[in-house]
């Protein structure tokens, strides 16, 4: 089948995952690794930026901002340092694409870091990793060490030997807020991870107040393929405005959850079919197109093309392509309560709408789940969410409000039922569980 067909899988980043020891330098090079790095060093930095800009590669971390355009925002060189920071602080509930990518094939990220650093004139790049994933931290450290020992990083790079590049892997302390790029930069500087006021944007004053590019793992890992195969190859996949391939992470009540690398524009119906369908005897109730921070979708959205424009037009966001699937045994109130507790716990407390709003939304959600809601709770919950949305210092506040507002929009009767009936009676835990105690014996 043609790569332009949305339903076709396009293994690019995931193509080496089943190779023998794919995380090693020798395996990576045996499968074409670092050819793009050699090619990029034969180009001018400006040409590398222009190629990525023309490719249509959009940020894979959630917002979908054009990657090459972001690089081009850096001011002209002034003799001082500039930095690349890779956001590997994957923390969104349901999101699970960057961790397995770094675990299975860390060198594709290292090669992308090298090419990007060269393109933007950076000599010291950082990979900011969520600290709990120690196994991934060790794997990245080993990959950087291998690349440096092989002369792929370090000093004297390029045909003239005049380019130097240091790569530092930094393990964060495990805070969801540090997925926000400016909070990440503060944390990397040794400060408390809290979002900064913008402007100035990181491109002008980022790490150590110097020009900085902050990109997601998958965004940077996609760069070597574009340099190697060209823009026509990349644009042949996906849609006109959402070009290329991406990793779609399907979890929940499907027979075979997993990672599916496919062109943008594939539909949820196609992905569920690739998973073997819903678990036997059950039907789809609701799902998330981009993780817990995105407004939920229902059966009516199964044929929405999964690209930035179509998902946005349908009322949600593609986000990190964390496709969480829930069947009819699931309490929407219970799921949204769990997400709300997460956001309340992870709020940095810097701004009032998020700090106070998530606390009160959590209290109401707990009441509704327990069947102890008070008259007017659903209206109050919707009002609080509306007062947070668009008024918080960073996107964490919006993330906490979106599932509540969309949950009430599509399943208001379940929220209203929380005034009198506990969710555990309407939706028993044992019916929702994917694994039973008997099945684990």
Automatic annotation (TrEMBL):
Catalytic activity: a quinone + NADH + 5 H(+)(in) = a quinol + NAD(+) + 4 H(+)(out)
This protein's record includes keyword 4Fe-4S: yes
Listed name of the protein: NADH-quinone oxidoreductase subunit F
Nucleotide-binding found in the keyword field: no
InterPro entries named in the record: NADH-UbQ_OxRdtase_51kDa_CS, NADH-UbQ_OxRdtase_suF, Nuo51_FMN-bd, Nuo51_FMN-bd_sf, Nuop51_4Fe4S-bd, Nuop51_4Fe4S-bd_sf, Soluble_ligand-bd
Family to which the UniProt record says this protein belongs: Belongs to the complex I 51 kDa subunit family.
Taxon lineage: Bacteria, Bacillati, Actinomycetota, Actinomycetes, Actinomycetales
EC number(s) recorded for this UniProt protein: 7.1.1.-
Signal peptide stretch: none
Top-level EC class: translocase
Domain of life: Bacteria
Molecular-function GO terms, alphabetical: 4 iron, 4 sulfur cluster binding; FMN binding; metal ion binding; NAD binding; NADH dehydrogenase (ubiquinone) activity; quinone binding
């Amino acid at each position: 089948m043609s790569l332009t067909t949305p339903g076709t899988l396009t293994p690019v980043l995931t193509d080496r995952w089943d190779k023998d020891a794919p995380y090693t330098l020798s395996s990576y090079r045996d499968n074409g690794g670092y050819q793009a790095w050699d090619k990029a060093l034969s180009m001018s930095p400006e040409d590398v930026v222009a190629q990525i800009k023309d490719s249509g590669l959009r940020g894979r971390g959630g917002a979908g901002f054009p990657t090459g355009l972001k690089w081009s925002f850096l001011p002209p060189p002034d003799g001082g340092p500039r930095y690349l920071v890779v956001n590997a602080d994957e923390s969104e509930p349901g999101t699970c694409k960057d961790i397995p990518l770094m675990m299975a094939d860390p060198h594709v990220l290292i090669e992308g870091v090298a090419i990007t650093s060269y393109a933007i004139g950076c000599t010291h790049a950082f990979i900011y990793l969520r600290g709990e994933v120690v196994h991934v931290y060790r794997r990245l450290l080993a990959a950087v060490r291998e690349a440096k020992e092989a002369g792929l990083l370090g000093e004297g790079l390029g045909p003239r030997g005049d380019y130097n590049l240091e790569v530092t892997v930094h393990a964060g302390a495990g805070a969801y807020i540090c997925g926000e790029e400016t909070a990440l930069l503060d944390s990397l500087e040794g400060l408390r991870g809290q979002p900064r006021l913008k402007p100035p944007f990181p491109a002008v004053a980022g790490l150590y107040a110097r020009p900085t590019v902050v990109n997601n793992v998958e965004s940077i890992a996609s760069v070597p393929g574009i340099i190697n195969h060209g823009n026509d190859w990349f644009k042949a996949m996906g849609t006109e405005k959402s070009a290329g391939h991406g990793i779609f992470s399907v979890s929940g009540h499907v027979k075979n959850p997993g990672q599916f690398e496919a062109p943008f524009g594939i539909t949820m119906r196609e992905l569920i079919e690739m998973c073997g369908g819903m678990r036997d005897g059950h039907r789809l109730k609701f799902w998330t197109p981009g993780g817990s921070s995105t407004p939920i979708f229902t059966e009516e959205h199964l044929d929405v093309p999964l690209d930035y424009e179509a998902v946005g037009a349908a009322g949600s966001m593609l986000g990190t392509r964390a496709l969480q699937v829930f069947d009819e045994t699931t309490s929407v109130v219970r799921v949204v309560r769990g997400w709300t507790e997460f956001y309340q716990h992870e709020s940095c407390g810097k701004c009032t709408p998020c700090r106070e709003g998530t606390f009160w939304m959590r209290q109401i959600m707990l009441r509704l789940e327990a069947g102890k809601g008070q008259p007017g709770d659903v209206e109050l919950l919707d009002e609080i969410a509306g007062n947070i949305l668009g008024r918080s210092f960073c996107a964490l506040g919006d993330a906490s409000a979106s599932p509540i507002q969309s949950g009430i929009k599509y399943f208001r009767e379940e929220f209203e039922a929380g005034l009198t009936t506990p969710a555990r009676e309407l939706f028993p835990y044992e019916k929702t569980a994917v694994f039973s105690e008997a099945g684990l014996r």
